[in-house]
Specification:
Elements lengths: L1 E7 L5 H14 L4 E2 L6 E9 L5 H11 L6 E11 L7 E8 L1 H17 L12 E6 L8 H10 L7 E3 L1 E10 L2 E11 L2
Antiparallel strand pairs: 1-3, 1-8, 2-6, 4-5, 4-7, 5-6, 8-9
Length: 186
């Protein structure tokens, strides 16, 4: 199974992501928008592992979220990977109780290491992917201003009440995400 641990964006917040994507698509018509039912904030991508890890990964989430109450994050800015000027992926960064995201992420990384599962050594940047672009796409200063304007509004906070273990199943060039486990925050 192809596993990842993430925060699913509640349905009540999806309209604001749809609005962000609509504005983004106006600025960059060739952007391939992330399907709204796949909008999430990844805490750890585990990748292809045997199904026997399912129970262990559920325990990883329980341990990582121990004593962490529900919290809020708010969409704040658009950035890109690998950079905003040569993005392959555009994403929305968040502000708010991001310290809790870092704590949960670090605990997950420690638990995955204890299970001898691969961990991502890159710096963790809490983000929500909203679009993909061709390799040769470049963002100039005018387009960067347009992206800033999209985010120059007040967004509703996203209430984080649980962390989920997902499986990602390839299907016709896309991926279907199935929830395997949901751990509620205290």
């Amino acid at each position: 199974m192809r596993f990842f641990i993430a925060l699913e964006i509640p349905s009540g917040n999806l309209a604001q992501f749809q609005a962000i994507q609509k504005s983004l698509h106006t600025l960059i018509p060739q952007a391939k928008l992330t399907a709204l039912d796949k909008v999430h904030l990844t805490l750890a991508f585990i990748g292809e592992q045997p199904d026997i890890y399912r129970k262990s990964l559920a325990q990883v989430i329980k341990d990582a979220t121990f004593d962490i109450p529900s919290f809020e994050v708010t969409p704040a800015y658009i950035d890109g990977f690998p950079t905003i000027h040569q993005p392959k992926v555009l994403w929305v960064g968040v502000k708010g109780d991001i310290d809790k995201l870092f704590i949960i992420h670090e605990r997950i990384q420690d638990e995955l290491e204890d299970l001898h599962l691969p961990i991502d050594e890159r710096r963790f940047v809490p983000h929500i992917s909203i679009a993909k672009l061709n390799n040769d796409f470049a963002v100039d200063r005018n387009l960067e201003r347009g992206l800033e304007e999209i985010m120059a509004q007040n967004f509703e906070p996203i209430q984080i009440t649980s962390i989920k273990l997902f499986e990602s199943i390839p299907s016709d060039g896309f991926h279907q995400h199935n929830t395997l486990t949901e751990v509620k925050l205290t």
